[in-house]
Amino acid sequence: MTLSKAAELTGLARATVRRILLTLKASGLVHGDDRLFSLTPRVLLLASSYLASNQINSVMQPLMDATATEAREVCSLAVLDGDEVVFIARATPTRMFSTGLEIGYRLPAFCTSVGRALLSRMPDDQLGEAIARMSVTAMTSTTVTDKQALLETIIAARSDGYSLVDGEAEHGFRSISVPIRRYDGGIVAAANIGGHVDRIGVDEMKERFLPLLQKLAATVQPLLV
Prior knowledge:
It contains eight helices and eight strands; from the N terminus they run ααββααβββαααβββα. It is an alpha+beta fold.
């Protein structure tokens, strides 16, 4: 990545970005010259340290493994980071091949089932303000981009206790998510199961996968402090 691109993405002055990059370079996290910079494998130590120290991951992983095995589908866990969701854990069923979002992958919160489940933790007024500030760009032809409709959809998801998104983040892919709560009821993450529309119908999402996710959420809640 060029210095100019890094400054553009961060919104910082070029001189500030250059100082930061040189500091990261001295720490061994970045290599490059004054024009091009790239990450080194050492950054993986930071990621692995986060995952190892995150209580959610350590508690959730074995339960997600059991959920994925019973569902025979990938089960993923995400947290909210600004206007995006970041996937921090993933469980794959015991079979030869399966697809799913990798750990560290980011997606817009507004058009994903995990994102809407996480956004639903906000009170209505705070949620409305957050949506008003968001950059809402269609990811597919069915993405909800009307902000009032989006607000109503997330409020409905809060009432229902789950979020189902059908082809809004990726064409031909649907997923269902539930909020993951800690012992006091606060939402700290969201778990989902998804699949391609030609293989998994909406009814199956609700009838087969939703109970599994609800069981997962209920089991883990008293364990998260």
